Each structure stands twice: as C-alpha cells, then as structure tokens.
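Weekly puzzle thread! Below is a chain. First person to post its structure in token form gets bragging rights.
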Amino acid sequence: MTDIKTERILENPKICVDYAGEGELLVLMHGIGGNRSNWTEQVEAFAPHFKTVAWDARGYGDSDDYDGPLDFEDFSRDLLALLDHFKVEKAHICGLSMGGRIAQDFYRMYPARVKSMVLVATFAGFKRLSEPERQRFVELRLKPLKEGGKEPKDIAPVVAKTLVGPVAAPAHYDRLVASMERLHKASYIKTIEASTAHEKALALNTVTVPTQLIFGEFDTLTPPEVGRNMADQISGSVYTEIPNSGHLINIEQAEQFNKITLDFLLAQN
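Winning reply:
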C-alpha cells in the first residue's frame, strides 16, 4: 500500500497536494471539473518510480479560493512555485483536459523547467472550437450557475454524462459526479471564464521535450482527431488512442493509461 501524504503548500493561495515516492518529480493536473482525487490510482502506480504529486489547482478541492478574477497564467505560476517548493529544476508534467492546457501553457512560459509532457484528452486552446461548440461548453456549465441559481451538485449529473464513454462503468460515472459536486462555485465560474478567454496558445511546433499524447476513442469533448492533429505538430511526439474510453481516460481505463504513461516516462530516465 502506497503511503500517500497530503499537504497544503505555497501561499496566497494555499495549494493542496497528494504526493508519494522518490526520484524525479512528476506532477499530475486534473481537468476543469476535477480535483486531485481523480489521480489517486496514478499516484499509487507511479510512486515506485517517481516523486508523484497530484494537486488541487487554486480554487479546487482543498486548495484555497482567491480574490479577484483569474488569469489563466496563474495556474502556471502556481506550478512554477510547486516545482520550487520541491526543489527541482525540471519535472515531468502530466495534465488531463484543462490540466493539459496548463501543461502546455507552463511549457510556453517556462520551457526550461519541463523534462517531458503527457497531454491527455486536451487541446491547444478554445479557439480551435467552433462558436457553437464553445457556446455549448460554456452554457452547459455556466448558465445554470450564473442565471439559474444552481450549485455545482445540480449540474454534475448532466455534465458528467457528456464526458464518460458509452461503456464506462457506473462507478466511473458516480466518481465523476462526486468530483464535480466538490467544485467551488465562484472559483469554477472564474476558471471557465478565464479558460475560454485565454488565447495565448502554445505553438506546438516549438515543443522540443519528449511528449506523449493520450486520447479516448469515445471522447466527444476532445475527440481523437484533435490529438492526432496535435501530435502531427509536435516533432517526435507519441500518440496513443485508448479504446472504449471517454474523456476521463485515467479513470475509465486506468490500467491501460498507467502502462502507457509509465512506459513513456521510464524511457525518459
């Protein structure tokens, strides 16, 4: 049984992390509706080989909320402070969905601090979406909260159904709903607004670190063609499509995800 430690680190805001293991630092970052608990199986699987850290991003889980609007680059500045906290110059960065966008943004801002990237069910920026797609994403999540007086627990079942694959186990769906029920309403709204407005997308053809892209066969938010297109732009990258998976690949197909990711990361040592 892996001894996973939980700690609140940094300041203004405090960031909550789960971590275990020794060796090179590997940071795991959740999506826009998630928290660090989404990565528990990965912390356990990767800790024998890496110092593995899963965070609650600012305004999520057991991390602090913050005053004022969110600049999407704040996430990358928090990640930089996390690397400094653990006293490392470079880290392996793995992010799913919004976490993958943070990984890309971090590389754009601090390329010398990245040893490798694992980009999971993500995309290079909201400008890749058509206006109807962007509007649907925002309205499904924001409209009930801002105009309908709803709470995250009210929208969680509806949003979760759009993310899991058609063969996902009920336990996977229930886990995603539970994750979304823990969202901090005000911070979640600020994150959606900042995320959709952020247009400083990484130029993928400038990436020079080893990069693994992992996408799910049945993911409708970030479908496989998005991942293949990204891989075509990142020289030397590896693209893998996971059968029978929706958006939450590390939960829906944890065994396959863990093997692919670990094989890639160990090859970088």
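Puzzle host: Confirmed. Bonus trivia for everyone else. The mean pLDDT is 94.
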